[in-house]
Design brief:
alpha+beta, Structural Genomics Hypothetical 15.5 Kd Protein In mrcA-pckA Intergenic Region, Chain A, Alpha-Beta Plaits, nine-stranded mixed β-sheet, four-stranded antiparallel β-sheet, about 25% helix, S4_RNA-bd_sf, TruA/RsuA/RluB/E/F_N, isomerase
Length: about 240
Amino acid sequence: MERLQKVIAHAGIASRRKAEEMITEGLVTVNGEVVKELGVKVSKSDRVEVKGMPIYREQPAYYLFYKPKNTLSSVKDDKDRTVVTDFFNVKERIYPIGRLDFDTTGLLLMTNDGEFANLLTHPKYHIEKTYVAKVSAIPTRAQLNKLENGVILDGKKTSKARTKLISANSQKNTAIVEITIHEGWNHQVKRMFEQIGCPVEKLKREAFGFLTLGDLKPGEYRELNAFEVEKLKKIALSNEADAKR
């Protein structure tokens, strides 16, 4: 038996908090009966519907994927472009946790667990993501300091970041820069570099929390083990607790 809101979250319908709102608003039924009380537990034989649509309960699945270039972080596309799920041959109905731009490569996590996805994407959990960017200028230390202290995007200041100048090519006026952030705003890394006058030519996500690509090649994936999943959860919850202190 599992709590109803957890079942909804695991089905990828919504985060657990949103699932609780759906329950209290009378949008969820169990075996045809509306349930508005939190804490109700259901078994695998119970029929659960959200807004009249039955949910299918799968075993939670977690994958680490090396997203290739020119691939959408989506499960489908009306323009018939390549999407990340095209590379998977698994029985679960998985979807990406967050997104990487169409032309950005690197580490992307995939799951069917809505609660887990929320833990790793909501900014309050401060999960670090590390990117390596090729930029069409050589940033000065002062420019990198601006990134580290936060820059203004759409009237909001980004949180503090960590940067490292990996290499510079003075003849081509290009550089390779590593940057670590914990937010996930739209096109954030590219826009941050634009703010300091260093447009991004190529971008790759190298790490998500403690996870790295390892030996994976573009288009390949591997399943996360139970230890990795639990460690990510603990990091997220620990970061949230630290932020409240």
